[in-house]
Amino acid sequence: MTRALGIVRAAKLLMQSQCPVCGADRTETIGGARSPIAICVYRCTAEFEVDGNGEIIPMNVCPSASYGAAARLNREARADALRQAGGA
Ligand SMILES: [Zn+2]
Question: Which branch of life, at top level (predicted)?
Answer without folding.
Answer: Bacteria
